[in-house]
Specification:
- Helices cover about 60% and strands about 10% of the residues.
- Helix 1 packs across helix 4 and helix 2 crosses helix 8.
- The chain is globular.
Length: about 180
């Protein structure tokens, strides 16, 4: 995140220092995680949950600001990346994978836990059903990893599942499966 965005986040209590790293504040992380829990548990549709959970969590802890646009814009453009980087230590603690620089590499053990005997809907013919099944399986595996290795972070399982679905990368040049389905 740009230094002006970090300054804005720190001055409004949305970011905090964790050693040399800048991460989401505890209240902001809990707010986003709570919204992710609500959105995931009550809906069948998977697409769009990330944006809804982040914006609803932000609305709970941030009301308004008179800060200059030069600080506000960098904060909001780097917010998704900051959320994922703040969740990487939690995912590492749950043994889902490891951080490699600014990227997160999911472990082979994580993918080995997926059920292999399930007949999956075809991504092109039934994209909604395929994404829903993929998300539910990912969510179940993450809950299992959190319960086994990091029970204190089980409350973040829904948010970790959304990060896993997003691929832990919010860079603007990232290609997604939707780019190939068109």
């Amino acid at each position: 995140m740009h230094p002006a965005g970090i300054k804005f986040g720190l001055s409004h209590g949305l970011l905090e220092f964790n050693g040399a790293d800048v991460v989401l504040s505890g209240a902001f992380l809990e707010s986003i995680s709570e919204m992710a829990r609500r959105k995931v548990r009550r809906r069948k549709r998977v697409m769009g949950i990330w944006d809804e959970a982040v914006s609803a969590g932000l609305r709970k802890v941030f009301v308004s600001s008179t800060a200059p646009r030069q600080e506000v814009t960098p904060f909001f453009t780097g917010l998704d990346r900051m959320i994922m980087q703040s969740l990487m230590p939690i995912a590492e603690k749950a043994k889902m994978g490891h951080r490699s620089g600014k990227y997160f590499v999911t472990s082979n053990m994580f993918f080995a836990k997926f059920r292999k005997d399930v007949r999956r809907p075809h991504m092109r013919n039934e994209p909604g059903a395929a994404w829903r099944l993929h998300f539910r399986e990912t969510y179940a595996v993450i809950k299992e990893f959190c319960a086994e290795h990091s029970p204190e972070n089980l409350r973040h399982a829904e948010l970790l599942a959304l990060c896993q679905l997003e691929g832990w990368d919010r860079s603007p040049n990232k290609l997604t499966i939707e780019d190939f389905l068109v």
